[in-house]
Amino acid sequence: MSLATAITGLLIAAAFIVMILFVLFGQITVRKLRKKPATKDELGLEFASGWDIINVASALAMPIWLNKKLKNTPLSGLYANAEILHKHTNYLDLFLARIFYALFVMTGVSAIVFAILSSIGIFDK
């Protein structure tokens, strides 16, 4: 088995885990937040179905200083309101958000870097 095949397998496995966490986080946390009147309109702009799950995960997983900086930009309506979401979530929700969002970002970045390195020919024999 070549190195490129092994890395591809790891990326596929990580993407599968991210898909499972996406559904779990959406069903456990975001579904609860959609039902509450206080948080219903604070989940950010939904470009496509399920995008609010990523908005909520990023708001709960990112550091507070970064959320404050994003809140002061002209595009702040695109992002979920982290302050309100923190008030209406528990530790399980925060844990799921951080694990899901970290794996989501790392898998995406790793796949892009791998594709670039593979196209350059780094993994050729």
- List the helices and strands in order: HHHHH
The unreliable regions are none
Outline type: elongated
Approximate helicity band: over 70%
Overall domain count: 1
Average of per-residue pLDDT values: 89
Distance between the termini: 12 Å
**What is the SS-derived class?**
mainly alpha
This entry's quaternary arrangement is single chain
Q: Determine Rg (CA atoms, Å).
A: 17 Å
Q: Tell me about the largest β-sheet.
A: none
Word description of this protein:
The protein is an all-alpha fold. The protein has one domain (3-120). Helix content is 70%, strand content 0%. It has helices at 3-35, 51-61, 64-71, 82-87, 91-120. 24% of the residues are buried.
Write a concise keyword list for the protein shown above:
mainly alpha
Care to give the gist of this entry?
With 125 residues, the chain is mostly helical.
Secondary-structure topology with pairs:
Elements: H1 3-35, H2 51-61, H3 64-71, H4 82-87, H5 91-120
Helix pairs in contact: 1-2, 1-5, 2-5
